[in-house]
Automatic annotation (TrEMBL):
Gene3D superfamilies named among the record's database cross-references: Tetracycline Repressor, domain 2
Residue ranges of DNA binding: 42-61
Keywords: DNA-binding, Transcription, Transcription regulation
Native organism taxonomy: Bacteria, Thermotogati, Deinococcota, Deinococci, Deinococcales
Record has DNA repair as a keyword: no
Protein name: Transcriptional regulator, TetR family
HTH tetR-type domain ranges (all copies): 20-79
Organism: Deinococcus marmoris
Lineage: superkingdom: Bacteria
Length: 195
């Protein structure tokens, strides 16, 4: 007999704690491998890094597209949550902002792979892009405002333009061994300093 709500719809049981932990571990493992090896990394490598069986990966994410989208959302949330945590744990808002930009760059590597993987679903990718802007633009703005208020960076920086600029500097970095996007972005962030 199926458990139902008052409206007669089946009630979905909550995920067990261990299943939720497995899913988060899988998302973290996949995100790390997407950064180093691209979104086409074999599922068996993701499972091995997460310390689970391949079947567990497919139980949580039946298709690669579902896994990639889940990693994308997971990384956006991690990046959004990291902003306030970095600001609280650093004495310098500028340093907190620089550390956050590094996390944002890790995310962008996955995002660019996702864009390539979702070429046939432009509408779906646009929804995810809007989700990114809605979640991360306020975080970037807060970090920039704190660094401006502390006198560490110049006051004329727009968070959206900066995020777009960092994103553009990351394009193609994974396919050109002579191009170090982290170094170039570090130069950009250094250029924000108040003289």
């Amino acid at each position: 007999m199926t458990d139902t709500t008052k409206q007669g719809t089946p009630r979905v049981p909550p995920k067990r704690a261990d299943a939720h932990r497995n899913q988060l571990t899988l998302l973290d493992a996949a995100a790390a491998l997407f950064v180093t090896s691209g979104v086409e990394v074999p599922v068996r490598e993701i499972a091995a890094k997460a310390g689970v069986g391949v079947g567990t990966v497919y139980r949580h994410f039946p298709t690669r597209a579902e896994l990639i989208i889940a990693v994308y959302r997971h990384q956006v949330e991690a990046c959004a949550e990291a902003g306030p945590a970095l600001l609280a744990s650093h004495t310098s808002p500028y340093t907190a902002f620089g550390d956050w930009i590094q996390l944002f760059m890790d995310f962008l590597t996955t995002k660019h792979g996702l864009a390539a993987a979702m070429q046939s679903d432009a509408a779906g990718f646009q929804i995810l892009h809007s989700y990114l802007i809605d979640r991360l633009l306020p975080v970037c703005t807060t970090l920039l405002d704190a660094a401006v208020e502390s006198g560490e960076i110049r006051p004329d920086i727009d968070a959206y333009e900066l995020m777009r600029g960092v994103g553009n500097l990351c394009i193609g970095a994974e396919s050109d061994p002579r191009y170090n996007a982290r170094r170039v972005v570090a130069l950009l962030i250094a250029g924000l300093r108040q003289l």
